[in-house]
Input
Amino acid sequence: MSKFEQLDAYLVEHQHAHLELLFELLRIPSVSADSSKKSEMGRAAAWVADQFRSAGLKTELIPGDGPALIYAETEPVEGQPVVLVYGHYDVQPADPLELWDTPPFEPALRDGNIYARGSTDDKGQMLTHVLSVLAWKNCGMKLPVQVKFLIEGQEEQGSEVLEAKLPELAKKLACDVIVISDSSQYAKGQPAITYGLRGIAYFELRVHGPKMDLHSGSFGGAVTNPGLALARILTEIKTPDGRIQLPGFYDNVVELEASERAMWDSMGFSDTKFAEALGVDALTGETGYSTLERRWARPTFDVHGLLGGYQGEGGKTVIPSWNGAKISFRLVPNQDPATVGRQLREFIASHTPPGVRVEVIDLHGGRGVVVDPNSKFMKGAVRAVEEGFGVQPVLIREGGSIPIVAQMVDALDCDVLLIGWGLDDDGAHSPNEKFCLNDFYRGIRSSSRLWEHLADRR
Ligand code: BES
Ligand code: MN
Ligand code: MN
Output
């Protein structure tokens, strides 16, 4: 039996066991945003570390000021590249709970999908690489490249622990290429390799007005309403035709290449179907750019939540003493989150009406990435995905962010391969998040081939 035949047989035989392992991890509610889930974060980290240890990998739990990092490595292979797999074991909060058909942390298999918070983002995807390395080990075969793993528990919150430790970890993490499966395929049945991600700059705004809530009958018309002031600021940040008004915001934005635009135009993307799938009667955004361009390669501004004021049942006639908003800018490569923070503060200073004070709180940020689609590892990745899925992957960019990637690439001076097994309709961050069972298996299979195809066979 050839190496690949042996691996394939092992993977088929262990499908059920692999699914059981994923279910175990999915049962741990490792919500990094929720400070009451600290012990669950610890359990998830320990679980991941145990998988590596069980396969005999040199494994370390690296504690920090927040969820622990897990580092593991296989043996070095002389003359061959070093591959670093990055992934995250933390998940987004599961609320609103009532919209889930089955509980978010009780994984359920329905119509070929695994439903659970974190199934696609990122526990299921991340585990494909862990399981494929375990497969090589358990088949008694020597991996063709050294594989290192760095699995963190704070990706959904801006990777503070990893960011702080990156300088001291740089030597340990030294590699030729980072492999990440935390993104999506282009469409069902059409796998993709992602060569660009957007960056992000996330803030909370707090508009402070009168020192206490006021009766709106007695005081309305005499003071600035913080909610209204907030609404005005928010709507002034982005015009209805999608242009962001912060001073200097577009200075570093790299315009799309004509060839890139032509390539995306030919991808058969349907605005009508997309709008229908989202349940909206129109798609909107920056004038002059297609939907794919706006999602993948143009900056934008969004409001994620509105805070303060009366949120209870019935009516309450108050002028709230404060109102707030969670907001973020998606950035394109070359834009810097810290610069955007300064531009936001400057904009707000000149747009704050009298009678209120606006506080800007930095939450987190990260730069975008673009990967050279002709890098020397790309060919191997294409081959591995093709062998795992039976379909040649297309090259895409995506609009989501993995904030630490740009910093890792800088610190480690390496290439990066973003090969996601998810689907746009997986519902990452949404109720009823799912991961296609077959994509889980195909992902493991692709990963098992990847180590071979990343090796230098000159
Ligand atoms: N896996 C996503 C990033 C992603 C989403 C990549 C869609 C490609 C397509 C990641 O877990 C994520 O959600 N990132 C956050 C970062 C933020 C919380 C700092 C994001 O993009 O909002
Ligand atoms: Mn993710
Ligand atoms: Mn996410």
Residues 3-197+368-454 form a domain with the Aminopeptidase fold (CATH 3.40.630.10). The mean pLDDT is 97. The chain has 14 helices and 18 strands.
